[in-house]
Write a structure and sequence with these properties.
two-stranded antiparallel sheet; 6 helices; mainly alpha; 10% strand
Length: 226
Amino acid sequence: MEKFGKVKVKIGNYPGRLRATFYENHMNKKYGFVNWPDEEDETKYEQFLEWLEDRVQDFYNIFNNIWFDRREQKVSVRIDRWDTWSMDVTLAHIVVPMLKQLKETKHGAPCVDYEDVPEHLRPTKKEQKAYKEDGSTDDKFFERWDWVMGEMIFAFESKLNGWEDQFYSGEPDIYFEKVPGEAEFSEMKHGPNHTFEVDFDGMKAYQARITNGFRLFGKYLEGLWD
């Protein structure tokens, strides 16, 4: 049985600060998060709310500068020496639940290179041109990131689930026969009941997908945000 150490990671919430948000909350509720009107189209009430929010925020910033902005995020990490015996597996236990949570709760996505996803997730040439001209995203923009995150999760989960077993079948019947003229070496032989087989092609393809998942994790590490 593989032994895991007592690695402990405690990361506190990001330090908060005082924020006046009554204008922001009003606009989001009335217009949605991305449909705010231009400044000249705002109502007088909305313009007053914006002015008032700025004044209140100026007051809040006095306390932010004195106290809130000086606080730091609390991070505590304990690593025992045996935690690095299988460091890839140890990290997988931490990374898998983090990736799954991010995949479920994220509010955005980074740009994913088209060659990193299957062809059915790639934009058309017309959509690629529109993105270059004005930043317009295609219908598959967020699906590409979902697919990439899924491949990352697949790679790390494979470190934990003994994936190789699915490519073994049958039962071994093995014995060793002494090699004539050799004092120390014996030759392995298969008995009549030997049915053990390994799907090396399937194993190679599976491993290639794992390797690609780790490649994507390294490439898009800085895109893992919410």
